[in-house]
């Protein structure tokens, strides 16, 4: 039996359609839940495809947030994450892109995911051609393995890499240059880094829902830039309680990122029927040893 090469050709064409379609839609919403009046909220919407990621950013109740950015001072010798003053005389960067480059892939995680998908898709199409010409269990198995590998990278690798570039995995206690909001303010010119805070702590979480993958970020700390210079050392040494001097510098933030799949996932599953039909129709011409 010569197999069903037409079905494999159709599967290959659908690979190109999937590659050219939209990949993921990401919605991020972060709120200052304590420390600022009226709980300002930063909303960002990302659209990701094979070449670009476009975004729109908006701020609800923006006035308190703008006043916060205007009134705070940049601390030249900020506290470390435990509340102790840093010994190094290093000022934090005002450039949000520089802070973002401190992430796990230096801001290039999404590009790595794109390159991986391109290689896997090209290998998958090539494997379909080989399976059509040499229909053996091995070649069919390789095609199936590559299809699953592409699906895993698309469904998990792309959103994880996009969120990593966003900055939600930075901004921890050990990442002094990271954003104190987990990347939610990184697209602004007033991003506040972790090393501007005393007694800073943060945590991240992940879950899944029908909407897609959900990532959460929570942080709290005392922004030394809101205090007079002679008040900072006391806050660095001892975290103030409510009602004590310096407590007014407490900033608490909560953010949530939802990564919903685009049409690429639907197209990728549409590849499965013609691929299976074409591969099953081939003869199991296993080589004799």
Can you describe this structure?
The chain has 289 residues and is of the alpha+beta class. The chain has one domain. The protein is 39% helix and 22% strand. It has a 6-stranded antiparallel beta sheet with strand order 3-2-1-6-5-4. The longest helix has 30 residues. The relative contact order is 0.21. About 5% of the residues have low confidence.
Brief summary of the model shown:
With 289 residues, the chain is α+β, with helices and mostly antiparallel strands. Helices cover 39% and strands 22% of the residues.
Counted beta strands: 6
Strand order of the largest sheet: 3-2-1-6-5-4
Largest β-sheet summary: 6 strands, antiparallel
Oligomer: single chain
The total of helices stands at 7
Compute the separation of the termini in Å: 22 Å
Which properties best describe this structure?
single chain, 289 residues, alpha+beta, six-stranded antiparallel sheet, 7 helices, 6 strands
Secondary structure blueprint with pairings:
Blueprint: H1 5-20, E1 24-34, E2 41-48, E3 53-60, H2 62-71, H3 96-100, H4 109-133, H5 137-166, E4 197-209, E5 212-223, H6 229-237, E6 250-261, H7 263-280
Antiparallel strand pairs: 1-2, 1-6, 2-3, 4-5, 5-6
């Amino acid at each position: 039996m010569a197999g069903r090469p037409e079905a494999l050709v159709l599967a290959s064409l659908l690979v190109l359609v999937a590659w050219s379609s939209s990949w993921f839609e990401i919605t991020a919403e972060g709120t200052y839940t304590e420390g600022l009046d009226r709980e300002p909220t930063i909303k960002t919407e990302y659209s990701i495809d094979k070449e670009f990621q476009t975004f729109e950013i908006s701020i609800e109740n923006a006035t308190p947030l703008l006043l916060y950015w205007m009134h705070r001072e940049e601390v030249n010798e900020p506290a470390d994450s435990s509340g102790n003053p840093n010994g190094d005389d290093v000022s934090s960067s005002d450039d949000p892109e520089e802070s973002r480059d401190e992430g796990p892939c230096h801001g290039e995680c999404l590009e790595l995911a794109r390159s991986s998908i391109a290689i896997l898709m090209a290998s998958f199409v090539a494997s379909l051609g080989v399976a059509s010409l040499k229909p053996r269990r091995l070649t069919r198995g390789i095609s199936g393995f590559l299809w699953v590998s592409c699906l895993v990278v698309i469904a998990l690798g792309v959103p994880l890499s996009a969120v990593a570039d966003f900055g939600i995995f930075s901004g921890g206690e050990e990442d002094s240059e990271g954003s104190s909001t987990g990347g939610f303010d990184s697209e602004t010119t007033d991003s506040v880094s972790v090393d501007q805070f005393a007694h800073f702590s943060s945590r991240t979480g992940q879950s899944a829902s029908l909407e897609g993958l959900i990532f959460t970020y929570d942080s709290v700390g005392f922004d030394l830039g809101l205090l007079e210079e002679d008040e900072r050392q006391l806050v660095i040494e001892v975290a103030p309680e409510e009602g004590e001097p310096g407590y007014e510098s407490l900033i608490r933030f909560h953010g949530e990122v939802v990564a919903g799949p685009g049409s690429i996932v639907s197209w990728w599953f549409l590849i499965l029927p013609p691929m299976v039909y074409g591969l099953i129709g081939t003869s199991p011409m296993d080589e004799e040893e």
